[in-house]
Predict the 3D structure of the following.
Amino acid sequence: MGEQRRVVARVEELAAQINEARTLRRQAAEEAEAFVTSVHINLAGKRTKKLGEILKLDEDAVPIEATGSYPQVGVKSFGVGLFAKGAVEGTGTTYRAFNRLYEGVLLLSQVKGWEGAVSVCPPELAGWFVSPEYRTFRCISTESRARYLAPLVGTEWFWSKLAGATRGVGARRERTRPEQFLNIELPMPEVDQQRRGEALFAEVDALKSLQAQTETELDALLPTILDRAFKGQL
């Protein structure tokens, strides 16, 4: 019994340390997001723009062929971003066309955009496809830069703007239509100022990548500890 109590106490100690690390990671993520929002608002000053003045609806609709295969991309809510999904065969969908992505295109989920399902396409997902429920927007080069918008649209500050532009409550909200999205007005710095912001945001991106790696490692750590405990290796 003494050995069992020692192992249980050790597992509880390690679990507490893992939970503390998770809390610190969440705090760091919140601080990084607050930094992006603060920099954006300060760079913009009093200058505001509607999204329709800095973005343009731009959809590369590819007709679906029965013999075709179309690797899919999804958008996670709450600013998490894009993720690769399995390919859909031409005979496996009722859609007539998919929207093809390209680097720097801003992708909005009509269904879940109001809860942060919005992101900018990175190079590695260019050429992949999304259903027509995802709308794509191109930066107007004289008004906005994709590399600047990428971290900004992942903030709660940004997607709260979408929530205000979408009718309904909770899961009963309507789809966020392109015209609603493009009508949103928000602070927006000049392009030259956006370039300055990109250099600052690059450091935040590096931090977020490290945080994602750490989260994966933390998720795997506790099951490993429990496995070792059952095997008497603690």
Notes: The chain has a mean pLDDT of 83. The longest helix spans residues 2-44. The helical segments are 2-44, 51-54, 146-152, 156-165, 178-182, 191-230.
